Amino acid sequence: MGNVQKKLAAHAKLAMKAVRAIRTMRASAAILLVLALTLVPLLGGCGSNSNAADNAASSESDANASADKASSDNSGGDSSRLTDRDSTTETHDDSAASDSSDSSHSDDPAEEDRGDSPPPGLERGESSQYDDSKPGQLTAGEWNDTAEWKGWLNLLQSGEGQENTSYWSFYPERRLEVDVVSDGKPVADAAVTLTRDDGEAVWEARTNNEGIAYVYAGLYDEQGSQDKYGVSVSFGDQLKRYGNVPVPRAEALKVELEQPVKTASALDLMLLVDTTGSMGDELDYLKTELKDVVKRVDRDNGQQLAIRVSANFYRDRGDDYVVKPFAFTDDVDKAVAQLSDQHAAGGGDFPEAVDRALENAIDQHEWSDDARARLLFLVMDAPPHHERKVTKRIQELTEEAAADGIRIIPVASSGVDVHTEYLMRFMAAATGGTYLLLTDHSGIGGDHLEPATGIFEVKALNDLLVNVINRYAAQ
């Protein structure tokens, strides 16, 4: 590739970054800026490449400044869910790695792929090497659709939402919240079953540590079969039954058990990590973050909870392995060593064997019968193969996880596309989990998809994971 072509490729990349940065600007200003970024290298690239580069750098700096102002203007407004992906605004914690407003750039497109910010702790112009042995470098956000339910339903009514509900055959509109208490305190791990008129179970779930369970009527059926259902709640030898419960229901169904219950102390943590070649840009950092998380959770909760960890890894059909599982262990150092031994390889095409990985994780591991929380962190950057039998299996496994009280908590890495985002959020909501996503703020790895969510806070990934685990495990 000649020098002019390299310059044009670099400017094209800058133009795309500017477009992303100015999504909240007025349309007219956005058009002018994109035209400037496009025409400058075309008109002056052959005769004055250095001037074109300077102009593009200045334009990118202006775009970043305008985007920062727009983000600031929006931060004080309504933080409810947005249904327009292009209108999503993020805020970030100053303690995490932040975006740099420096407009410096390289002629090398590969260097541009490292992001706009220098590595955490470094100034631009210093060493460009990240230290993957130090935790707290990756940045991430959280969005919980079960907590923002109306916004989630609104999003699913958008063109993008309807396309993805049809694509994955997930139709979560008919949901019932069940709140279970005993002696005024929430009951964790109570079994909740939604039944048809004939007594057949439609959906099963377990209450979380706040005593809340979500059950679905026809999650994989767009039409549904009836409007009212039976509900049963059991814990130990206690059983409560309710009939003719409308689904959906405006308010949660409140259930009070008559006898006091004892809260379980078991905490099962499973890490299910994609180790295909496409994860190579972030895997070493993820291993460092996850090892730090496991140690911190054990240090903070080891005296109060019986913590077990299972580290599992997967690739794709035809690779050296499809699933590499490790059983639950209470030896945290052993789990950390298993994480350390992994590397990225294989893959090839975009989809991976997510269904095989989930099947092993949910069906072939000994999860605790009674637990404060069972958390499955699914770290991935690609969807399962979009085949009818695979989609059906994903649905079955999601249903099994919900019935067993296993909260699927996806962690979206660089490369995740829109279809994958929706599947991850479908699985999280169906099992009472939450959606986590890596962001560009760290400058590590490839580009991360801008999610179709409202405003969320960006934190260091390890801190966010510890917060999420502690929240699900709190008494």
Structure description:
- The protein has 475 residues and is of the alpha/beta class.
- Among the domains are: 238 residues, von Willebrand factor, type A domain (Rossmann fold), CATH 3.40.50.410; 88 residues, Immunoglobulins (Immunoglobulin-like, Sandwich).
- Helix content is 35%, strand content 21%.
- The protein contains 12 helices and 17 strands.
- The strands form 3 sheets. The chain has a 9-stranded mixed sheet, with helices on both faces. Strands 3, 4, 7 and 10 form a 4-stranded mixed sheet that branches.
- A hairpin with a 2-residue loop joins β3 and β4.
- α7 runs parallel beside α12 and α9 packs parallel to α10.
- The longest helix is centred in the first third of the chain and has 27 residues.
- The N terminus is likely disordered.
CATH topology of the domain at 139-166 and 264-473: Rossmann fold
Morphology call: globular
Low-confidence stretches: 1-81, 86-129
Helix content: 25-40%
* Biggest sheet overview: 9 strands, mixed
**CATH architecture field of the domain at 139-166 and 264-473:** 3-Layer(aba) Sandwich
Secondary-structure element pattern, one letter each: HHHEHEHHEEEEEEEEEHEEHHEHEHEEH
Relevant CATH superfamily of the domain at 139-166 and 264-473:
von Willebrand factor, type A domain
Strand line-up of the largest beta sheet: 1-17-2-16-15-14-11-12-13
Helix/strand class: alpha/beta
Q: Return the average pLDDT rounded to an integer.
A: 79
**What would you report as the Rg, rounded to the nearest angstrom?**
24 Å
Please report the distance between the alpha carbons of the first and last residues: 61 Å
Q: Count the strands?
A: 17
Q: Estimate the strand proportion.
A: 15-25%
CATH class of the domain at 139-166 and 264-473: Alpha Beta
Distinct helical segment count: 12
